[in-house]
Predict the structure.
Amino acid sequence: MAQTLFQKVWQAHSVRTLANGQTQLLVGTHLIHEVTSPQAFGMLRDLGLKVAMPHRTFATVDHIVPTDQRTEPFGDPLADAMIKELRRNCAAHGITYFDLASGRQGIVHMVGPEQGITQPGTTIACGDSHTSTHGAFGAIALGIGTSQVRDVLATQTIALAPLKVRRINVEGRLRPGVYAKDVILHLIRTLGVNGGTGFAYEYGGEVFDRFSMEERMTVCNMSIEGGARVGYVNPDETTFAYLKGRPYSPTGAAWDAAVQRWKATASDAGCSYDDLVTIQAGDIPPTVTWGINPGQGIAITENIPDPAKATAADEKSAIEEALAYMKLKAGAPIKGTRIDVAFLGSCTNARLSDFKEVARHLKGHRVAAGVKAIAVPGSQIVGRLCAELGIDQVFRDAGFEWREAGCSMCLAMNPDKLVGDQLCASSSNRNFKGRQGSPTGRTLLMSPLMVAAAAVRGSVADAREVFGVS
Amino acid sequence: MPLAKITTLAGRGLSVPGNDIDTDRIIPARFLKAVTFEGLGEGLFYDARKAVPAGQVHPLDDPRFRGASILLSGANFGCGSSREHAPQAIRKFGFHAVIAESYAEIFFGNATTIGLACVSADRADIARIAAAMEGDPAMAITVDLVKQEIRFGGSMAPLTMRDAARDALVNGRWDPIGELLDGREAAAMTAARLPYLAVPAK
């Protein structure tokens, strides 16, 4: 019978059915970082347990690392304690750890793909909701809680019920100046922030066929913002080309065998889905959020919603709450809204192609006076590649601060934070109240090029106009 | 050690209304800078509590609702980050159950695993409970996972909960670690059948 990738991978990794009906699911690859793992190691110690398969867990440090001054001890003693604890736990249990000195440190969702650890047809778990990123390779990649991190460490399995699968086709071609980020912001706006609850999203159609791995990662990354715990793209030649030659990718005959296996894990022609959604690429605009969840987005050419025009009571109160927090005016154009900070980074958009695309347009432009603009590569490797290509210099010349790799101002667990009610044009993934480190800080989510356009204008701008994209 | 069978939870309620209450709001990221879950209760809804205008009081700081152990909220509760710190903070503040219209998936799983019962009820019923609570903050609420109902002030409302979670709580197997450990050999056999796991790591 024709099956989806989700069904095939789920079956292959099913260990047994548990008493409450959930599946004991084998986790092929486990990724950990400093924020959600120390308590799990603590639980392991309390239970007197060892790590079952230490060679299947990989660690890096990303959330709390400073992106400027990185000599230890860190200025923040709490952050310093966290990196030391991770280092200690990895050493004690024989876990591979990509430390700051490794040259391979970065946001955990960048490190897995870069190293070739993220592979098609596998199950991947990490104590981080953006683990869905790895689905870009045709893996079932799950964000988990800390007790589950403990479960994976102790047993290499978790208890979970299977998900339904919603196929999302994006057909046709994207218009110039429209990016993978716009695709996912548009999808979340269309399907809702909880539209994906209970589903894995399988992305496909012409747009995804044409997308690079990095673009696929941007979309899969924000699946969770639409409520879907898992998002994936079927593996194809683009996937294999990306993985070829990476440190953990198979080589020689093992590579050929792996590619054959990977091809076979893709959803079969004629398989049935629990739901099917088709979007026309031409309908997707450069999208900007105006509110306090990632579903509150509009086209750059649209006006900020007016609660008076809301059709449902819920919608009305949601708009009112968002506008009150965001200090934005109902019915006003989003374009022209003054910004204080521009942040280009995060596991959503801090890959080489993101910086390359922005640099191509940014050359010759200057960040507007009064705007603090920071560019934070997602990994040390991306930082090095940007330096080799002179991309970092383009950003510096334009007035951006060019930083070291980490999660940085996406969630501001390091020193990179908004101050007061600063408004930030951000390439990150969440615009929740207080997300960027100030309880009154405000976030507008958008594509990297739109962040650059806002930085240059000093206000939310249409990148197509600012940079003459057509 | 056998786990407690969580069948009924009784206590006073407290309402934090609203839809899409995300885990950053439940526990702001700066409270995650620690290597244990200790003291998280103090960070619960920290920024939301501080943002209350002068002369008003956040429900968590309202003396009328002090000691509440059942939290009421809206739809898609716990969306966003996978941080277990969110249900941990709710638990450490003193709540044993949440009654909301619906939950984000990762949050729901994390809560169940630590024995925090997250039940769903209709919006109208939640409003009814909240209204009764407002009139009588000391009103006892009983969340009955066996009968699948919420009893309050002489009234009753049905509750729903995913079967697997309800089974796990009611039968004292909400933390799956014991069962997962029992399946270690079976897991090793499954791993042996998967070529990518057979390849030695570098």
